[in-house]
Amino acid sequence: MSESQTSSSIAPVTNRPIGRVLVTGGGSGLGAAVARAVLDAGGTPVVLDRSIASVSGMEARELDVSDTRAVELVVAELAHSLGGLDAVVTAAGIDRCGRLDEVPTDEWERVIAVNLLGTVAVVRAALPHLMQSHGRVVTVASSLALKAVADATAYCASKFGVLGFSRALAAETKGQIGVTTLIPSGMKTRFFDDRDEKYRPQDDSRLNDPAHVANAVLFALGQPESSEVRELVICHAEEDSWP
Fold it and tell me: What is the pLDDT at residue 202?
């Protein structure tokens, strides 16, 4: 068989349109980068965040993802106004660093409520609409969903939970929706701003640009039918928390 015969027998890959995408935590950081990337790719991003003051050029709603009832109402309203949903990206996340016996109980539990339970709440609310569109979910875990470190029990617990939830959801919904777990390492965002100085990166040269990570999200969302990126690790080339 000639080279021309071989190449002509291979069907061209057609990427899936990005469509209507809910982005939690889209007011800043990775979420904002994802929302902008969706818009630039011709999709329709809708930002969900506790603060949407910095959002422009796209629809946005104030929402605390740990408030399950509010999530249900907002997602249902948006799905109706948009005529459906094609994807959800759960980028909302917080952290409270410190030893287990030093972090106040309410702050420790707040990390779980936002990072894990908030992820679940949004995905559950969007699930019927994603089933109709054969849509996709990208959950945002972390390199600390794979590698546990000291003084991060709440964050590690929440992100290990996101990874387990996402794997189980992928098994539960295979062939119906796509589920990708994004596993990024540190990024150049304001995520570290409210930390004690000893928990901030002392050298940000090995933090990834969130725009690069957002491109990885688009790669997962744009996969053709019946092709799924189940887990995607993305980090700076000199990142030292991976593996």
Answer: 60
Find the length of the chain: 243
3 phi and psi, to 5 degrees? -60, -40
Q: Could you tell me the two tokens for 201?
A: 């990166």
Phi/psi for 201 (5° steps) reads -60, 130
pTM of this structure: 0.89
Point out the residues that are catalytic.
155
Per-residue tokens: 200: 């901030």
DSSP H or E run through 46: strand 44-49
3-class SS of residue 90: strand
Domains and CATH numbers, the chain: 15-234 (3.40.50.720)
* Amino acid 11: pLDDT: 57
Q: Which residues of the chain have pLDDT under 70?
A: 1-14, 188-205, 241-243
Q: Mapping DSSP to helix (H, G, I), strand (E, B) and coil, where does residue 98 land?
A: strand
Q: Are the beta carbons of 136 and 220 closer than 8 angstroms? A: yes
With beta carbons less than 8 A apart as the criterion, state whether 108 and 96 touch: yes
Alpha carbon distance 162, 51 (integer Å) = 23
Preceding amide of 201 cis, omega within 30: no
Q: Where are the beta strands (DSSP E) in 101-230?
A: 136-140, 178-184
